[in-house]
């Protein structure tokens, strides 16, 4: 019996804006298709994320890049999706057969965007150029400079180039010079450390705002004082609360009113989310969204008996899991400026302890990366299907916040 879960990887443009996510069926911790019929993999992806209603939630309203084999295409699985919401990724093809040409031209005529993957530079694929909108290249297998002659051949067809397996920010400039338009990989998780970097007053203020949420009971006056220095903070907080407080019919207009409707714990979460949004730049937008989803998913999983003793720390740990990238400062330096509990520090700095395991399980689950996923779910007895359901819910929640 396979353990089923869906991983996603962001695809970003040259301005670090997320254009969509590649969604893949996984049953193993190595982020590859399982050793079963890939047609079954794509079928299950559709069932889990479309028929159950949540491909848009998982992708936060962005494009979903989905692998389709020839058999899936013949069975017209893509037609189950809105053509504006997906990109068809061609996989498992060794050559552009007459059958494949007929299939691809059909979907092109229907208005679907099509991406050619596993591209090997062979001129035989030029036959597909009139029908496709993107070519994806694994830069670990093909030197990007070899694409230079291809750029001129694809220009008349307005085909975009996407680089896969981009691991460092250093690679981005070279890829842009070659002519790549989009990038997929873990480069945006790599912190760009700036020597001698100090925190701007506004960022220090936001870290102080986060720190205030650790006070028990919550000090409304202190939080209100920090927020009052910027009218946009107050407006932003109340807008965010009203976006998700759908169970109330009364518009929430103050911190104390928000606490009355939401409870102190949820209000704390909203305050920390607001602070994170103010620390986020365009360049760290994607990693901040992932931190929000990580925080929400960690909070839910921590209710499981195995993680109950760290449940009070789960949300804030997930939220701060990207702070190093966002602030461009070493995590060791950042944690010294905040009154964080020891389990949170150990989890963030070294991924140690029960809270560290929860952080690793959650963050690796979201992107399908890391060998520890299966091991940790088995050790702690957490059902992978349950995690998937809550991942979808956390993604929907992130989108509903309306802050990115």
TrEMBL record:
It comes from the Bacteria. Residues 199-386 form the HDOD domain. InterPro entries: dGMP_Pdiesterase_EAL/HD-GYP (IPR014408), EAL_sf (IPR035919), HDOD (IPR013976), RNase_Y/CdgJ (IPR052340). Coiled coil: none annotated. PROSITE patterns: HDOD (PS51833). This is EAL and modified HD-GYP domain-containing signal transduction protein.
């Amino acid at each position: 019996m396979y353990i089923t879960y869906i991983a996603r990887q962001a695809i970003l443009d040259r301005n670090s804006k997320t254009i969509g996510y590649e969604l893949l069926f996984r049953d193993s911790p190595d982020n590859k298709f399982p050793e079963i019929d890939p047609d079954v993999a794509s079928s299950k992806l559709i069932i889990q994320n479309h028929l159950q209603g949540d491909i848009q939630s998982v992708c936060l309203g962005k494009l979903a890049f989905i692998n389709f084999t020839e058999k899936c295409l013949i069975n017209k699985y893509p037609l189950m999706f809105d053509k504006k919401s997906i990109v068809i990724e061609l996989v498992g093809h060794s050559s552009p057969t007459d059958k494949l040409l007929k299939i691809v031209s059909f979907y092109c005529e229907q208005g679907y965007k099509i991406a050619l993957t596993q591209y090997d530079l062979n001129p035989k694929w030029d036959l597909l150029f009139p029908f496709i909108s993107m070519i994806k290249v694994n830069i670990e297998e093909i030197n990007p400079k070899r694409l230079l002659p291809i750029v001129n051949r694809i220009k008349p067809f307005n085909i975009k180039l996407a680089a896969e397996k981009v691991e460092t920010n250093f690679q981005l400039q070279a890829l842009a010079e070659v002519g790549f338009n989009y990038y997929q990989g873990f480069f945006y998780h790599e912190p760009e450390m700036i020597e001698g970097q100090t925190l701007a007053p506004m960022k220090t203020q936001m870290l102080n705002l986060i720190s205030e949420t650790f006070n028990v009971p919550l000090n409304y006056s202190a939080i209100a004082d920090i927020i009052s220095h910027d009218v946009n903070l107050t407006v932003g907080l109340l807008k965010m609360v009203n976006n998700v407080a759908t169970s109330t019919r009364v518009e929430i207009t103050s911190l104390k009113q928000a606490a009355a409707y939401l409870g102190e714990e949820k209000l704390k979460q909203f305050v920390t989310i607001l602070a994170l949004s103010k620390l986020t730049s365009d360049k760290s937008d994607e990693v901040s969204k992932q931190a929000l989803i990580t925080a929400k998913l960690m909070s839910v999983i921590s209710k499981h008996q195995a993680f109950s003793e760290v449940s009070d720390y789960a949300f804030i740990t997930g939220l701060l899991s990207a702070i190093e990238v966002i602030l461009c400062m070493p995590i060791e330096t950042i944690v010294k400026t905040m009154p964080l509990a020891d389990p949170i520090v150990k989890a963030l700095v070294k991924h140690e302890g029960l809270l560290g395991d929860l952080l690793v399980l959650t963050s690796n689950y979201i992107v399908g990366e890391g060998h520890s996923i299966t091991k940790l779910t088995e050790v702690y007895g957490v059902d992978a299907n349950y995690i998937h359901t809550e991942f979808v819910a956390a993604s929907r929640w992130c989108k509903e916040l309306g802050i990115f």
